[in-house]
Amino acid sequence: MKYLVSVYTEGNNAKAALLEKEKESVKVLRVLSLSVSAPGDAGSNNFMLDLETPAAGNDLSFDELENIAEGESESGDASDISRLNSILSGIKLSQVQFMPVVGEPTANYHFSERPADANKKKLLQAIISDIYDSKGVKVTPDMLGYTEFDEKTILSVFLEGEIPAVTLINRLANFNKRRYLKIPAIKPAELSLAYYAAKNGNFFPEDNTLIIYIGRETSKLIFLEGNKLKHIGATLDVGVSNLHTYDVYFSKILLEMENGGVSKLDNIILCGEDRSENLILSFYGTFPEANVSEMKFEDIDISELSEENQRDLALYSIPISAGVEYFDELDKKHKGVNILPRYIQENQKFLQFGWHSYALMPLLFGATFFFTFEILSNMQKINELDMEIARLNQKQIQNQALIEEITPLQNRINSFDATQSILDSATVDAGIWSDNLSSISDFMERRRNFWISKFENPNPGDIIVYGFSLSRSVLTEFARNYPAAVVKSINSETIREKTAFSYIINLKLNEKQSDVQ
């Protein structure tokens, strides 16, 4: 879905049409007519709604404007542009393109008797030279467009001076707080009218057709031969605002027929401000053999328009024809003349550079490279640090596992210290301890099936020995070496699938014991 606002200005009048392209169909959604202050007037920036042309739809009803307060300033730009802005009601600006349509004196036509050249740059320079030689006008390539008129002739269009429709669109952009609105092309009004009439007219190849557009202050005469452009007449300085008799049209038409080599008229198509019955009858009287009709838009969906705007749709022939031609160009059905000056292209660029900006571009690229390199280097360092953190976390987990293994060993060591403390305090006489321990050590050396696991000192001179033995007789033998010893208990236990005896013996160390035999 594509939206296009086609805007045509003529003197103090502007006409706009909102078109929608969806698949293969074109729909006219809204039309609008505005009065524009003449250039150079004090109120030249003021746009006022033409109350004679109602807008389509409730949201575009401007009848209430008749009740505008008399005290409102004539330079109320915001109010006037807001009325123009209402043609976009309910549509996002980002979805809409705007296309100015120009006619004389902004658009000028020139015929060059030369065939088309594949080298477009060379052909443009040749056309520019022709225009300067014949008209004395210097034209830049961006202000020039061309098309093939016939096999031997090139028809070119060049722009001069300010483009009022572009100014109007720019002011609409400012009203919407935009730097610019999207302008894809600028179309010449006469060529767009000729294209649309030829596209939809069932003309015989030998038919001569006149398209006459009557504006407020000027009128246009365009001649077709069959479905091809034959001649573009000079713009007439007469329109509905200054026309006193239709005879002036007939004399101008006859003059342009002579200039364009048109011998007769088979069809006359009326469009613009005046399509009255009196005008049609006057043409029948002067050209009785011609078929006089109003321009129709039968291939366009106009169901969104009000009944009155549907009846008066020929009033908007130029903006609608230009919009249809542009859509056909996008679909590769037609190749017309599109002009887009360089200043408009530059204004629509996202980044706008002057010569000093281009001088700074190497620095910009250098800074970009430097910061990119620094960012990548820092990212590499961050990755290395992340890996080191992961390694240390793994090491911490391993160390925690070792601590958990060491804790039981530490408890056993502490228990040994307590046992050693008991032995140290078991007797006052260190000699008794030495003799008895030596005796016990000798006995255990001889009897390899006898172990001591624990000592207790409940009372001074008493040592309770806990341990294990693989032989019960060894325990009896050990106890016999201590006359005062008391065997308190002997229990049978299984240790590593072997039968052993756990014992508790109370040794009396009050007297020095003899060596264990």
Any chance you could write out the topology, listing elements then pairs?
Layout: E1 2-10, E2 13-22, E3 25-36, E4 47-49, H1 77-85, E5 96-102, E6 107-112, H2 120-135, E7 144-150, E8 153-159, H3 164-175, E9 187-188, H4 189-200, E10 208-214, E11 219-225, E12 228-232, H5 247-260, E13 267-272, H6 277-286, E14 291-294, H7 307-311, H8 317-330, H9 342-347, H10 355-425, H11 430-446, E15 450-456, E16 462-469, H12 472-480, E17 486-495, E18 498-508
Parallel strand pairs: 1-5, 5-9, 10-13, 13-14
Antiparallel strand pairs: 1-2, 2-3, 3-4, 6-8, 7-8, 10-11, 11-12, 15-16, 16-18, 17-18
The beta-strand count equals 18
The CATH architecture of the largest domain can be named as: 2-Layer Sandwich
- Rg over C-alpha atoms, rounded to the nearest angstrom: 54 Å
Which regions have little confidence, pLDDT < 50, spanning 5+ residues? Answer: 38-76, 512-517
N- and C-termini, Cα separation: 117 Å
CATH superfamily membership of the largest domain: Protein of unknown function DUF3822, C-terminal domain
- Look up the CATH topology of the largest domain: Nucleotidyltransferase, domain 5
Instruction: Note the overall shape.
Output: rod-shaped
- Output the strand order for the largest sheet: 4-3-2-1-5-9
CATH class identity of the largest domain: Alpha Beta
Secondary-structure content class = alpha+beta
Percentage of residues in strands: 15-25%
Count of separate DSSP helical elements:
12
| Biggest β-sheet strands, sense, barrel | 6 strands, mixed
Organism: Melioribacter roseus (strain DSM 23840 / JCM 17771 / VKM B-2668 / P3M-2)
Keywords: Membrane, Transmembrane, Transmembrane helix
Transmembrane segments: 355-376
Protein name: Fimbrial assembly family protein
